Amino acid sequence: MATFGKATFNTARYAAIRPTYPRQLFDHIFQYHGRIPSARFDTAVDLGCGTGQATVELTPFRHIVGFDPSAKMIEQAKKGIAANGTGGALPGQLRYEVSRAESLYSVKDSSVDLVVSAQAAHWFDWAKLWPEVSRILREDGSIAIWGYSEFRLTKYAKATPLITEYAQGTDPRNSLGPYWQRPGRSIIENHFLDIPDPDVVVPGAFYDFQRIFFAAEEDEKRDSEVPGNEEEIDVEWPLALILAKRA
């Protein structure tokens, strides 16, 4: 079980500090989904939705459902609606359910237009997930999963290996590496390359499979500089995105 699913996990604090995702990412996904005439914007589901940071961005779809195996996460997502509204969703457009991504018993066959997952796909069992997604997606429906690896300071490239060593090293006295849950963290740090192509699991069920990587260029001119104690700095998270369409 991931730490997020434990009864002692503080979901309110998690929701307060969790990064959100750029509007351009969702625009790219919606454009990918809608580029063929048969594309529908009826139902979207968010797998491993956590407290709903990505779920509330799916408002181009008439019906939105966020699924997470943790009842505490779903409870916090619902509290977020009560406290902050639905992020532009209409009343009744958005709901949350407790469910594992690999077994969406409440979802009918061929009833979903878009499946997304934000920073959760590294916890899934893809030998079961690909068949389940192929079951629920309509023909020409889309799947989009994304996740970000360790942060970088793009203006201070020299800091990157130091950050990586601290976050992913092997020395338990000087690194967080030994304390991450594996293989989940290793999969995200490897930019989802360990997630199998759908044709390996369900041959012929998907087409237009893509792996896309987004990362800002580091400023080599400032490579030797060190930020001052009071200086505001830009933090960048490299992003991996997987896209595919249901055949």
From TrEMBL:
GO terms for molecular function: S-adenosylmethionine-dependent methyltransferase activity. This is Methyltransferase type 11 domain-containing protein. Coiled coil: none annotated. It comes from the Eukaryota. Residues 45-145 form the Methyltransferase type domain. GO terms for biological process: methylation. It holds the Pfam family Methyltransf_11. Belongs to the methyltransferase superfamily. It comes from Meripilus lineatus. Keywords: Methyltransferase, Transferase.
